[in-house]
Amino acid sequence: MSMDPSLRRLYEDLRSVAVAVVYPPGEDRDLLVEQLKRIGCRIHLAWPFPEHPPANADVVFFQVSQSLQHSSAWTASEVDATLIALSEYETPTTLKLLLRTNAHGVLTRPFRSSGILSTLVLARSAKQFQGRQQKKIEKLEGTIKSRRVIEKAMRVLMDHQRLGEREAYEHMRARATQLRVSVAEVAAMILEASEAMERLGLGGGARPGPPG
Amino acid sequence: MPRSDSLPSDRPGWRVGVLYSRTGVSGTTESQHFFGTVLAIEEINALGGVLGRPLDPVAYDPRSEADEYRRLAARLLLEDEINMIFGACTSHCRKAMLPVVERTNALLWYASVYEGFEYSPNVVYTGASPNQSSMQLAAYLMQHCGKRIFLVGADYIYPRETNRIVRDAVEDHGGEILDEVYLPLGCADSDIEDVLRDIAGIDPDVVFSTQIGNDALRFYQRFHATGLHARRIPIASLTMTESEVHEIGAEVCEGHITSATYFNSLDTPGNAHFLALWHARFGARPASVYAEASYNQVHLFARALQRVGSLDTRKLVQAVHTVKFDSPEGPLAILPENNHCVLTPRIGVCRADGRFEVVWQGREPVKPDPYLTTFGLDEFWLG
């Protein structure tokens, strides 16, 4: 029954979270800021709408409004913070703007005290989930890329060194261990060397020439 | 005390709603809320009301049912055209009233200890938050009873959230939660027997119970009947107060521990005045923190009303942030940033006469922190 540690972190973090609020002054902003203070967040206010996303913020609440073209100027893909949109209307035009921001959460006017904490926690969780997915994707892309390099290098070794498939791979792996680098890096070295020889007109030079 | 020269009777009263259950699972506890409210209204009216007008209450009995709370709150706010409610005790009943209270921009005065994590501009919270009650209790239990703790509660939001907080506090300080059990509100006696068998088997240092109302009374009675005693395993609670003890007999409760901001036995001028009024009105029946907090909030309301002369929610809430009241438990104030009350936490142990010996109290009043933003735990640690 003990609290899930990640959930606990997600909640307890809120006390040290730096929150930027990009919204015009007034009652609506006051309500939001007062509730964020009750939750224990550190608040930084920004207005007029800044050209660049506020630096050093973990979470950015920002206005999305039809009258504000630049509200879509920065979006989730270019900001490292969790983004929570503060929407003025639910008209199709505003919804389109909202979608373009790729925000992790949204609050719609009139704001209410209850609901802000839930949105904050869920948006941070969604952002963390996205982050983990993104890292996974990057890692998979890297794996696919190095796999291609390794395959190419194997072919070079097989063609020019008359090694079998398994021997070619074993050779690279042994070298990688010896040099304390990855197999992909050894493969890249082989391809580079092979290309250099090619350019020097010594294509296949690594291969011992047939006797006289 | 609000005073005026003109007599209350010749002008229309200030209409207020009173919603406390006189029956159902929390009937005993909520009757205390009701009596405390009655006492304050009668006291204020006897002194001439507020600005020459008496407080004019309309009261219904929601029978400890959330649906009844919802229905009767709507009746008060929409049909009776009242916008001020003193009411609710359990959290699920308060939550049931909130939508209509907010929609009509009314004001709810809520006098019970609760689990925190709420703020509504339409509620004034005069009972204790976790940082004024359960945190201190957890620290006290760890220091004076032992680190092996058994949690048993009713299955709704207040017990579950309170146990989450207590578990974190206990586990962070090297204690152990041996089990965490929930029984439905209005549970069968056999459910209670099952839990008691577990408790006797596991033999914890202390049981922390968040059962409420009649369920709690039956739990203490069965605990006693089974031959278990506070000397071996004390039960700690936030809601077992003088009125509950009165109901089931002090011999069942002796040695058990309660955390509350008020005990009947407090020696303050405010309490002497309060108890004199109370006994004149209600006889030998003891007053608990539930009566006292309800009494307090009507006085806070009357003082705010005297300042603004209007039942407008916004004006009243602003005014209540500025008033002070020397209550039976000490001076009170409502914090503007969260509408919760500054209160002094206390821990009492039930004596053979059914009154509580205050074994610990905060050095000074504690600011309410309903969202536990300073949940550093160490500052709750009793010195």
| Portion in strands of chain B | 15-25%
Level of helix content of chain A?
Answer: 40-55%
Give me the number of helical elements of chain A.
6
Largest interface: A-B, 16 and 20 residues
Protein structure class of chain A: alpha/beta
Derived structural class of chain B? alpha/beta
**SSE arrangement of chain A, N to C:** HEHEEEHEHHH
Low-confidence stretches of chain B: 1-8
Radius of gyration of chain A: 27 Å
Q: How large, in whole angstroms, is the Cα Rg of chain B?
A: 20 Å
Helix content of chain B: 40-55%
CA-to-CA gap between the ends of chain B?
A: 37 Å
One letter per element, helices H and strands E, the order of chain B comes to: EHEHEHEEHEHEHEHEHHEHHHEEEEE
- Residue ranges of chain A: pLDDT <50 for 5 or more in a row? 205-212
Largest sheet of chain B: 7 strands, mixed
Largest sheet of chain A: 5 strands, parallel
What is the number of E strands of chain A? 5
Quaternary class: heterodimer
Strand content of chain A: 5-15%
Shape of chain A: elongated
Description of the molecule:
- The complex is a heterodimer of chains A (212) and B (383).
- Chain A is an alpha/beta fold.
- Chain A contains 6 helices and 5 strands; from the N terminus they run H-E-H-E-E-E-H-E-H-H-H.
- The N and C termini of chain A lie far apart (81 Å).
- In chain B, strand 1, helix 1 (27-46) and strand 2 form a beta-alpha-beta unit.
- Residues 1-8 of chain B have low confidence and may be disordered.
- The chains are: A alpha/beta (212), B alpha/beta (383).
Layout: helices, strands, pairs:
The complex is a heterodimer of chains A (212) and B (383).
Chain A: H1 5-12, E1 18-22, H2 27-39, E2 42-46, E3 59-64, E4 82-87, H3 92-101, E5 105-108, H4 116-161, H5 165-179, H6 183-199
Chain B: E1 14-19, H1 27-46, E2 55-60, H2 66-79, E3 84-87, H3 91-103, E4 107-110, E5 123-125, H4 134-144, E6 148-154, H5 157-172, E7 176-183, H6 189-202, E8 206-210, H7 213-225, E9 235-237, H8 242-248, H9 250-253, E10 257-260, H10 269-282, H11 289-308, H12 313-320, E11 325-327, E12 330-334, E13 341-342, E14 346-350, E15 356-361
Parallel strand pairs in B: 1-2, 1-3, 3-4, 4-5, 6-7, 6-8, 8-9, 9-10
Antiparallel strand pairs in B: 10-14, 11-12, 12-13, 14-15
